[in-house]
Recover the amino acids of this structure.
């Protein structure tokens, strides 16, 4: 098999990064087009496997799936080229925007716009909560866990990392005690 | 300065390791960092999240780059961004090697049973806190009497009504929020 060039991997992931707007799942159709259909660096089945896996390991989903695809194409260096490519558009556009914003942020019209945008962000967060809630808070166990954590967070200052570790442990324990029967 | 870079690396490595399930999972960590180090204000952080939503690239990476840049300039943004992908990079590669042997992720399924409600609650507490800070507020925090920012309340209601039944479109809602902010604050 012909060795894929690292520059080519970087270029393709850069191209995908530019087109990524919104949630990480947007990357799947893009990977299918550029990597599975046009270049055959991996099969569609592998893409689906990597997507499922990327969601259940730590890290940003779009980042993880790029690392996996790059690794599949050209080993560790390929994975490095892929993650660098996917990160680069973010990096340059954010730094560019940050510098523009710093210069205009004192105008009242910009401040008013950002005042309104802050309310948009609250709504985006609420909609995300609704989505996760619909998919996952649906049993006595999950409902109790949700309430306990929410109350704890409202009254105490707890690191999110602690919450994640504790709930993972509680969940493992519960699943084992419930004997595999899904709650 | 060196200490700042180290703290950035440490905190964003932690986000990379513990923020599981999409870019928004990083939000509670960022608000935690805000409260702990005061590198930026809550309003600045919320603005950065908004910008991250409408900039190309994965939201989580955008947020890391932006908060890193605000905190420690170009070097800070390189450190935050590399830190957030550092451990996932190692984990992803080991998983690709394993995936042929163990299809799907059965082990993690039982962990996820509790992780999803946890991230829901983490985001929930952030959502409530932001709602409280922007629309209803009081000094000191969580005390009577409340004050209500009616302009914010009106914009919130105007924006949430269509978005409770339209599919989530971050770009659209942020543009509408900006326009709404400019119009409502004009009166």
């Amino acid at each position: 098999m012909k060795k894929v060039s690292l520059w080519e991997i970087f270029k393709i992931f850069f191209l995908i990064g530019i087109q990524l707007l919104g949630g990480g799942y947007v990357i799947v159709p893009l990977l299918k087009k550029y990597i599975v259909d046009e270049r055959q660096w991996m099969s569609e089945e592998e893409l689906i496997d990597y997507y499922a896996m990327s969601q259940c390991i730590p890290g940003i989903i779009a980042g993880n799936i790029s690392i996996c695809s790059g690794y599949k194409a050209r080993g560790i260096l390929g994975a490095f080229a892929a993650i660098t490519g996917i990160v680069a558009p973010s990096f340059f556009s954010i730094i560019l925007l940050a510098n523009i914003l710093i210069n205009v942020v004192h105008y009242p019209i910009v401040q008013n716009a950002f005042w309104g945008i802050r309310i948009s962000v609250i709504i985006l967060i609420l909609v995300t909560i609704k989505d996760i809630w619909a998919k996952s808070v649906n049993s006595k166990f999950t409902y109790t866990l949700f309430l306990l954590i929410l109350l704890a967070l409202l009254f105490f200052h707890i690191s999110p990392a602690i919450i994640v570790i504790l709930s993972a442990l509680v969940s493992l324990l519960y699943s084992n005690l419930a004997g595999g029967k899904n709650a | 300065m060196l200490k700042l870079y180290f703290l950035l690396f440490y905190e964003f490595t932690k986000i990379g390791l513990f923020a599981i399930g999409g870019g928004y999972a990083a939000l509670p960590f960022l608000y935690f960092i805000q409260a702990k180090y005061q590198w930026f204000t809550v309003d600045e952080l919320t603005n950065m999240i908004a910008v991250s939503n409408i900039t190309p690239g994965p939201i989580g990476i955008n947020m890391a780059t932006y908060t890193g840049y605000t905190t420690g300039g170009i070097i800070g943004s390189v450190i935050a961004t590399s830190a957030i992908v550092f451990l996932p990079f190692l984990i992803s590669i080991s998983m690709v090697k394993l995936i042929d042997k163990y299809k799907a992720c059965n082990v993690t399924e039982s962990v996820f049973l509790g992780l999803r409600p946890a991230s829901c609650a983490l985001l929930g507490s952030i959502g409530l806190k932001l709602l409280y800070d922007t629309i209803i507020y009081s000094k000191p925090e969580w005390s009577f009497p409340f004050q209500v920012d009616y302009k914010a309340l009106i914009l919130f209601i105007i924006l949430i009504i269509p978005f409770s039944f339209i599919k989530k479109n971050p770009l659209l809602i942020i543009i509408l929020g900006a326009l709404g902010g400019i119009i409502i604050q004009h009166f």
